[in-house]
Amino acid sequence: MRVEYDELTQNYVRLQSEYQKLHDVLYEPLENRTTPTKGELEDWLREDPTNLLNYSFPSFVCGDFAVMLSMHAKLKGWRMGVVGVLGHKQDGSEFNHAFNAIMCQEGLFYVEPQSDEVFQANISDGQWYYHPDFGLVYVDVYVVVVLYE
C-alpha cells in the first residue's frame, strides 16, 4: 500500500507541475524572453514533437500545428508568431495556410510546423514567394495572427 501511495503522490506532483506549465503558457505573459539563433531554433525543432502529429481535416489542421508550435516555443521563452497566407500556388490551386514566424538573432525566419522546415522569404500581399513543401505561392493576403515581435 505504501509503495502505491508514493507512486500516486509522485504522479500527482508531476501532473501538477505539467498543469502549471500549461496554465502559464496559455494565460501568463511571456517573461524573460530570449531570442534564439537560427541554429538553436533548428536544434530545438529536431526535439519538438509537433511535426509528428497527424494532419486530420477538419479536427487538426495547419493552424492547429502553428498554434501548438508557438505554445511550445513560449515554454522555451521564445516569442513565435502564427501567420497565414491566403492565395494560390503556381498551378492555380488555392493556397490557404498557417505557419510560424520567429525573430532569431540573424533575422526573421518562418517555420513550416508540419515538416520543421526553417526558411526565409519576403512575404507580402501581391507577391510570389517560395514555401517549402508547396513551391511558389502568390500572396493575396498575408495575415499576422499572433505577433512574433
Short structural description:
With 149 residues, this protein is α+β, with helices and mostly antiparallel strands. It has 3 helices and 6 strands; from the N terminus they run αααββββββ.
Your description of this structure?
This protein has three helices and six strands, in the order H-H-H-E-E-E-E-E-E. It is of the alpha+beta class and 149 residues long. Helices cover 34% and strands 31% of the residues. The model has no long low-confidence stretch (mean pLDDT 92). The protein is elongated and about 65 Å long. A hairpin with a 4-residue loop joins strand 1 and strand 2. It has two domains: 1-31; 32-146, 2-Layer Sandwich (Beta Polymerase, domain 2), CATH 3.30.460. A six-stranded antiparallel β-sheet has the order 4-3-2-1-6-5.
Portion in helices? 25-40%
Structural class: alpha+beta
- The amount of beta strand, in percent, is 25-35%
Overall strand count: 6
CATH architecture of the largest domain: 2-Layer Sandwich
Low-confidence stretches: none
CATH topology of the largest domain: Beta Polymerase, domain 2
Order of helices and strands: HHHEEEEEE
Spatial separation of the terminal alpha carbons = 53 Å
**Name of the CATH first level of the largest domain:** Alpha Beta
Shape: elongated
Q: How many DSSP helices?
A: 3
How are the strands of the biggest sheet laid out side by side?
4-3-2-1-6-5
Please give the domain count: 2
| Radius of gyration over C-alpha positions, nearest whole angstrom | 18 Å
